[in-house]
Amino acid sequence: MEKAPKENKMGVMPVGKLMFSMSLPMVISMLVQALYNVVDSIFVSRIDENGEALTAVGLAYPIQLLMLAVAIGTAVGMNSLMSRRLGEKRFDEANSAASNGLFLELVSALVFLVLGLTVIGPFFHIFTDKPELYSLGVKYLRICMLFGVGLFIHLGFDRILQSMGKTVLSMVAQLAGAIVNIVFDPLLIFGLLGFPRLGIAGAAIATVMGQWVSMVIAMLLVIRGEHEIKVSFRGFRPNGESIKEIYRVGLPSIIMQGIGSVMNTGMNFVLSRLITDEMGVAVMSIYYKMQSIIFMPLFGITNASMSIIAFNFGAKNYRRLMGTWKRTLVVCVLIMLFGLIMFQLFPAQIVHVFDEKGTLSDAGIRAFRTISLHFPIAAVCISMGTLFQATGKGFYSMIVSLMRQLFALLPAAAILALLTHRLDAVWWSFLIAEVVSLTVSSLYMLKLNRNELAEIRGLDPEGSPA
């Protein structure tokens, strides 16, 4: 007979205080992760004078994004299921979700290891015929894929901590990995303090080292701590029902984030083949690194909110669920308005950090100012997507991402490129796509409110929204 632990704070702590206490560690850790990505690109941009290393990393980014999509999507499915089962006080099923989710993360890592040995060369030939650019890209990406298990397993254990509201412990693991990454980047890229000068391979090795450090720390925090969820692989066999439930939310999330990889690949093709301007690839690479400084704290907040919303959805507490979501929406909009102001006022200073010679500055300034116009709309869409995933409606988020990135952004970018042959025109596709995303998200929000939310609203004696 399972023993019920003490009442989970996600069901009793005041919502505002709970959101702050859970999201602050995640915002800090994800902001450090974003800063690492920026610092990493700065170091890479110093490897050569013609910017080929930075362009190579930009071309590799879609595959790295695909790895993240599978790892994060599976972890989102775990998180949603574990949090819902904890809210329902079905603790054995929460344990099963954790063990099966980690098993799926390991299998995913092995799949990418195989792909790292087979598909990298043909992938880079799609975008470039330059031998040096091809060699740099293959060298960087192969290391990231062959040793990517640290990324997958870390994210699995990280979401176990998040599902229980232990976001401070999650922060510890993420910060440790990011710090290792930042420290070893210059040492291995430039051969400082007696380390070998490895160039772009050093950047990849530092990335992998950080992922493995985060994995080990998160694993120890989960296994050796006293938690509601217990992970054990003694006599483990994959559980079909748990796997099905994980992928019911996780698979749409994988597809949703994997679409980002397809979009990035398509944009690289538009920029390098239709516009025939490799500078555009470098500009977009810089933009995505800097964008992460705005988006990563936002994702820290939505990750914390997802656990709270999912828990209270399982507990049939409509008031706390909607109170959490409304606060999430407001904070996300404020963050993105801040990002919009920064990108409008200081684009020259931002681009100059990556471009000492000034070859990218003019194009980068125009790109930052145009693309950032979609930030406030994106905040609303991301907040609604968080609610969809937390309530088990990951399919809604998947459809929104499909509409936004494959059926709006890429076609708009290609049409603008073919009609104008101007790099600046392509950036307006981001705003066009976000308007489509907002329209579709709003329709699904109405549907969710009429069905699942109406059902638990009727069960909650204090069911008026907070």
Question: What brief labels describe this structure?
Answer:
466 residues, mainly alpha
Roughly how many Å apart are the termini?
A: 36 Å
**How large is the radius of gyration?**
22 Å
| Number of continuous helical runs | 18
How many β-strands, per DSSP?
A: 0
Question: Overall 3D geometry?
Answer: globular
The residue fraction in helices comes out at over 70%
Strand content: under 5%
Low-confidence stretches are none
Average pLDDT taken over every residue: 85
Sheet/helix structural class = mainly alpha
Largest sheet: none
Number of domains: 1
Order of helices and strands: HHHHHHHHHHHHHHHHHH
Summed up, what is this model?
The protein has 466 residues and is mainly alpha-helical.
Topology:
Layout: H1 15-45, H2 52-87, H3 91-118, H4 120-125, H5 131-146, H6 149-163, H7 167-190, H8 200-224, H9 240-274, H10 278-314, H11 318-345, H12 347-352, H13 361-371, H14 375-390, H15 394-420, H16 423-426, H17 429-450, H18 452-459
Helix pairs in contact: 1-7, 1-10, 2-3, 2-5, 2-6, 2-9, 2-10, 3-5, 3-6, 3-9, 5-8, 6-7, 6-8, 7-8, 9-10, 9-15, 10-11, 10-13, 10-14, 11-14, 14-15, 14-17, 15-17
What do these coordinates show?
By secondary structure, this protein is mainly α. It has one domain (12-459). It has 18 helices and no strands. The chain has helices spanning 15-45, 52-87, 91-118, 120-125, 131-146, 149-163, 167-190, 200-224, 240-274, 278-314, 318-345, 347-352, 361-371, 375-390, 394-420, 423-426, 429-450, 452-459. α2 runs parallel beside α5, α7 (167-190) packs antiparallel against α8 (200-224) and α10 (278-314) runs parallel beside α13. The chain is globular and about 60 Å long. The mean pLDDT is 85.
